[in-house]
Amino acid sequence: MAVQFSDAVKKTIEEVSEIAGYLWQKGWAERNAGNMSVCLNDLPSSCLPDDYQPFFISLPEIFPDVAGMCFYVTATNKRMRDLTRQPMKNALIIRITDDGAGYNIVSHFGKTDLRPTSELATHLEIHSMITRRRSSERVVIHTHPTELIALTQLSGLCDERVINKILWGMHPEAKVFIPAGIGLIPYILPGTTMIGKATADSLAEHEVALWEKHGVFATGRNPNETFDVIDILNKSASIYFLCRSTGQEPEGLTDSQIEELGKIKF
Ligand code: 2HA
Ligand code: ZN
To answer: What's the pTM?
Structure first.
């Protein structure tokens, strides 16, 4: 007998697996690259069997803002291309304990070798920031978009102001759909609470955070919307490199054109 999920949870899992396929097709998810989490505030406790034995794992710090909340999280060392076909063999559902000091695995009857992504601390820092702001966002995606990462490898470009000017200037929709732009996080060891806090702070101000020489984190109300902002920005970065490959510098939109686009509301 499998754990029964509500229709809303099943729909979320279907959407996440669809996006996992896109990340792989885009070439942004080599080997085990990337991870996702979704806040499942509607996970009914009735989906747990009466004899359920919660398996407790402690967290590297206390996360009081997400205490008691359930998350669907991709598993460490698993592939996005596998998750797209088998979402519950490559991800798990966890519930943060009421004191925020750890979590229980609530999927798989608590009996599984799967463990959450190595970037769990960053995901929980971001979900904590979202909860404090009472935002309706509930999805966090981390992936390795090639051209956005390449921007951070060029010393003349690895600057938040410069990167935003390039990205907004390469296509009008970048400013329309990502009006607050991308936040740049200078290199910090991945998997640490330090990079998690820096990322959450940056995402409080921007739609997307770019980890120098590594990848991006984005938040959204649903998996598709979260994927879209990364896709739009990486398209801009691709246009930039395509123009430069001709030996010429792209013109880019002017500051006043970008400002005008920033006033469009969707
Ligand atoms: O999940 O991308 O940053 C693997 C990673 C770690
Ligand atoms: Zn990564």
So the answer is: 0.96
